[in-house]
Amino acid sequence: MKAKYVNLFTDFGFKKIFGEEASKPMLLDFLNNLLPETHIVELSFKDKEKLGKTEADRKAIYDIYCQNDKGERIIIELQKAKQNYFKDRTVYYSTFPIQEQAEMGDWNYELKAVYCIGILDFTFDDKLKITENEVIHTVQLKDQNNQLFYNKLKFVYLEMPHFVKTEQELATRLDKWLYFIKHLEDFQNIPEIFEDSIFIKAFETAEIAKFGQAELESYEYSLKIFRDNKAVYEYAVDTAFDEGKLEGKNEGKLEIAKAMKFKGISGSDISEITGLSKNEIESL
Question: Which pTM value belongs to this model?
Answer without folding.
Answer: 0.81
